[in-house]
Amino acid sequence: MRSNGWIGRLALASLLVAAAAVVAAPEASAQAVRRDIAFVAPAAGEAWTAGSQRTIEWRAAAAGPRGFLVYYGVGGRNFRTIRTVPPTARTLDWTVPATPGNGTLVILTFRPRASIFSVSYGTVDFRIDPAGGGGGGPAPGPTPGPTPGPNPGPGPGPAPAPTPADDARIVRHTFPARLGQGERRDIEIVVRNTGTATWTRDAFRLGAVGDGNGDGVRFTGGENRFHLPAGTTVQPGAEHTFRIRVIAPAQPGTYRPAFQMVHELVRWFGEKVDLAVDVSGPPPWPQYSANPFVIRLGQRMPDRVGGFFAHDLTGDGLMDYVVTSEHEVGAYDHDGAQLWVRGPGIRVDGQFPHTHHPGAMAGDMDGDGAQEVGWITAGRELIIVDGRTGREEKRFGTANAQVAVIANLRGLGDRDAVLQINQNTLRAIRLDDGGTLWRNEHFQGIDHSPVRQADVDGDGKDDLCGAQVLDENGQVLHAWDLPRDRGTYTRAIDSIAIADVIPGGSLEVGLAEQGGNNQAIVVGLDRIVYGTFNPANPCCRVAGECREVDPDKVALGNFTGDARLEFFARSACGRAPWVLDADGRIIASWSVDDTKPQGWYSHGIEEVAALDWDGDDHDELVVKERHISGDAAIVDAMTGNFRRVFDARATRVYAADVSGDFREEVLTLDENGLILVHWNPDPPPAAAKPRKWTLQHYRRQKQNWNYYSP
Questions:
Q1: Which of 459, 460, 458, 486 is nearest to 468 (CA)?
Q2: Distance CA 62, CA 402 (A)
Q3: Closest to 447 measured CA to CA, from 467, 464, 471, 427
Q4: Contacting residues for 668 by C-beta, under 8 A, at least 6 apart
Q5: Which of 70, 76, 580, 596 could be joined to 567 by an S-S link, Cβ 3.0–4.6 Å?
Q6: What is the mean pLDDT of the chain?
C-alpha cells in the first residue's frame, strides 16, 4: 500500500490472492484484477476519530453474486474482514477502531466471466485521530490576568504553515459548459505546481476524479490519467498545459466531470476542476456547401489494398480524412485541404489487411490530447505520425505482423494496438514503446478481414472479435464454441459486423459462414443467438451459381423499424440477397436483376453497409456496382428498391456521419483521385438523435473496414 512501500503492496497482493481462493469457483482458470472501485468516504488522507460511528461509501459499476468484501488494515498491513455486504450496497456503517494511526480500507468484488474471474478492488488510506482531539494531561488552571508592565508591541505572530510537497492550482481551463451529444472537443487544463516536489511523467498525472466511476471518464473514452510528455518535468512554481480530447456522452443530461492532480499511488492533491456540463442535442456541424462536396487528393490512388476513413485529426470537432495505399498515406482536413502526404505506404503483401482495407489507424496514441495516425509498412515497422502535420513521432519493429488495429486494453484510452500475425495469432502491444501486453495463438479469426475490436461487454475496454470474442487480456469471454457446438467452419468466416442486435446486455457479433453449414450466425456473450442456412438460396436460380450458397457478406441494421436489428446477407453471387430478423427467421429476399436501374452492372452489388440516410427509425443500405469502378446507390434492404443512384467511378463506397445534422452521408472514392461526399438535402426529422459517433463500436468499425466487412 502507499504508506508502507513494497511491504504494503505485497500485503494487498496477498489479500487479493487469499480472497480469490476463498471466493472463486474451482474451475476458474485465471483472474483479471482491476482497480475500478472508488471510495467516496473516507477520502484519501481524511481524518476519522477513533471509536466514532462513520459510514463507508464507495462507487462501483457492478458487483459479483456474493457482493462486496470490505477489509481494514493498519498502515497497509494485517488486514481483517469488516463485513460482506450485498451486491446492491454502496455504503456500510462502521465503528472506527479505537487505536489511532494510519488505516487502510480495501473493497473487493468478484465477477465470473466464462474461463476468467474478474477481480475488482479499491483502496483508500486515511488517518485515525485520537478521541478528544489530542490526548490527556492535567486540566488547565485559571487563565492568569495580564502582567503589568510596558506594552511590548506586536509579537512575531504564528509561524507560517510549511509548503506541502504536493500541491497544485488550476490556472485556467477551456472545458465548455455545454456540448452536443457525441460532440468532440480538444480542451486544455493549465495547472501550476504550487508544492515543493518536481513533477515527473512516471509519478505525477492529471486524473479524472472518481477514476472509472466518476463523470470525467464519460468524456474521455474511459481514460482516467493524462501524462506529461516524455522527458517533461514541472518544477515548483512552473505551469503545464494538459491537452485532452473529450467526447460528450450519447445520453443527454447534466454531467459533473472533475479533474485533479495525482501523485500516483500516494495521493490526490491540489485544486480541482469541478464542472457542470450540459449535454443535449446533436453537436453543431456545418453542412457542406456543395452536393456532392469534392475533395481532390494529392496522392496516388490505392489499388486492391488501401482505402480511406473519417477521423477528427485537427481537434476542431469536425471529421477529417485519411487515405492510404501501398505507396503513401495522406490526410485531408474537413474542407478538403491537404494536411500531409508521406511515405512509406501500408503493407499489402499478406493475408491482411486485404481488399479495400485502409491498413491504418488513428487516435490519441500517447495521451497528449493530439491525434496520431499509425500503420505497418512493407518493412514491417509500425510508424506513428502526428495526425495534423504528418511528422514522425516514433517507429518500432513488429516482426511479422501484417496489420495493426487501435485499442483501449488497459483503460488508458487509445494507447494500445492489436497486431495480427495470421488468422489465428494476435499480439497486443502498448503504443509508447511497442512492448507486448499479451499474445494469443489460438484466435478464431476471419478469413478475409482483420480482427474487429469493440467494447462488447460494456466494461469500457476493447474486446477482440472473430468467430470468438476475447477480452482485453486475450482471454475467451464466453462458454460457447462455434465449431464444438454448431459444427461451424471457422476457417472460412467471410464477413463480420458488430452491433446491438438485441438491446440490453452485451453487443452481438454477426458472421457469414462460407462452407461448412453456410449459415448466417449471430452470437452474444451469453449464447449463440442463431445460425440459419437458407435452403432456398436463389443464387442457383438467378445466377446459375449452385456451388456457393453461403450468405457471403453481412450488414446489421434496423431495416424494419423494429427495436431489434436485422441481418442482411448479400449472397455469394451478389445478386440474390435475403434478410433475417433478430430470431434468425428469413423475412425477405429479392433479386438485384429485378430491381436494379438500367445500366447497373450485371454482377450485382458489393461493399454493402447499413446507412441512416433519412434520420428515421429505418436504416437503408449503401452499395456499389460489383467488380467495377462504378455507381453507388441507396437501396431498401427489404424490397431491393434503388432509392437513389450516384453517378460515379467509385472504387470504394463508405457510409459515415461527416457533415450537417446527425444523418449519415455517402462517400465515394473515385478512380480519378476524388472523394465525393453526398448528403441528404431534405429536412431532417424534428426529433434530433445523437450522432452515431457516440457509439464506441461505430467509431471502431468506421476505421477498421474492408470489402468483405464494410
A1: 486
A2: 38
A3: 467
A4: 624, 632, 646, 648, 650, 652, 653, 654, 675, 676, 678
A5: 580
A6: 87
Q: Which of 43-52, 254-263, 367-376 has the lowest mean pLDDT?
A: 43-52
Residues 6+ apart with CB under 8 A from 615: 661, 662, 663, 680, 684, 685, 689
Contact 87, 80 (CB under 8 A): no
Where do we find the cell 488501401? Answer: 306
Report the C-alpha gap between 574 and 588 in whole angstroms.
Answer: 16
Contact 19, 31 (CB under 8 A): no
| Stretch 533-541: mean pLDDT | 87
Is 18 strand, coil or helix? helix
pLDDT tens sequence across 555-582: 999 999 999 999 999 999 999 999 999 9
Read off the C-alpha cell for 162: 510549511
User: Do the beta carbons of residue 650 and residue 626 sit within 8 Å?
Assistant: no
pLDDT tens profile 210-253:
877 789 988 988 888 999 999 999 999 999 999 998 989 888 99
The DSSP H or E segment spanning 556 is strand 554-557
pLDDT over 90 percentage in the chain:
65
Q: CA-based Rg of the chain, rounded to a whole angstrom?
A: 29
pTM of the model: 0.69
Angle at 447 between CA 582 and CA 587, to 5 degrees: 20
Distance from C-alpha of 307 to C-alpha of 346, rounded to nearest angstrom: 10
CA–CA gap between residue 574 and residue 591 (Å, rounded): 9
